[in-house]
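Researcher: First entry.
Model:
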Amino acid sequence: MRGDRLKKLRESRRMTHAELAELLGLGVRQISRYESGVNDPTGDVLIKIAEVFNVSTDYLLGIVDDPTPHLRVDNLTEQERAVVAAMRRGDTTAAIKTIVADV
């Protein structure tokens, strides 16, 4: 894992090592080890970190530079699914109508 990214995310939320450790169920020293690159988190901890900061695991691993998690269809509302489906079809008008219909 890219420790510098974890540190940047933690600091951007004004979160202490202790606060993050508590959220993850870890010791304070372990957070410091992750940030300094001494240790890497297990897969389960990596997923928890991604969920806490709402970033993708690929971002934490340094595979991609965009921290935004990939779109997951299972957590979208019906309206959001309809907008995404319309955009994928290239039907911007239908997407806009779907958005505006709920306002």
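Researcher: Second entry.
Model:
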Amino acid sequence: MITDPDSFPDGVAEAGSTSFLVHWEGNNNLHCTVERTKALGKRAGVANIAGSRSGAGDDCKSGLRASATLLKIRRIAQMIERIKPDCELEVDGELMRRLLQ
């Protein structure tokens, strides 16, 4: 993960990337980063670190439970469907593998 992702969309676009995924955590101006990425004609995404307090991963530090995490994923998917149906939701495969063991 890089720090200060606000300064990278132009370079990522010039390097040939078709999308730019930034972490919610450590981004001082997430909205501007996403908007700049989209203005460059690239797909923008926002990631959430498991264990952060930003909503999706707040149970993760104290022992992940698959059912709680799957419920959060379902809630996020429902929110996306209501607010912006063309938005995509991705889940880290390694995280899910560990949860479902």
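Model: Note on the second entry: Confidence is low (pLDDT under 50) at residues 54-63.
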